[in-house]
Amino acid sequence: ILDSHILADKFCDLSTTVFTYICASMKFDDYRLSKEVKKNLYEMDFRRPTDIQYKCIPPIQRGEDLLAIAQ
């Protein structure tokens, strides 16, 4: 008999790993941002979004309201 808590923990570990991999591979160039914004990000040496930016940029670009808290 499998313990559902153990399975849930394993799934959370796996989903966190997958999310971290996807987020790490995403670049600001992959977003629909103006050339000026991309240029400024590049000049400030920002190449990849943080986890919270990765999660928030798409809904913001769709015009959705958003409230987010980052650690």
Topology:
Layout: H1 4-25, H2 35-43, H3 51-61
Q: Please, could you describe this protein's structure?
A:
- The protein is mainly alpha-helical.
- The chain is 59% helix and 0% strand.
Order of helices and strands: HHH
**Average pLDDT taken over every residue:** 78
The oligomeric state is single chain
How far apart are the first and last residues' alpha carbons, in Å?
37 Å
What is the overall shape? globular
Give Rg in angstroms: 16 Å
Largest sheet: none
Counting DSSP E segments of at least 2 residues, the number of strands comes to 0
Number of helices: 3
DSSP strand content = under 5%
Summarize the amount of helix as a percent range: 55-70%
Pairing-aware structural class of the strands and helices?
mainly alpha
Query: Can you tell me the residue ranges where pLDDT is under 50 for at least 5 consecutive residues?
Result: none
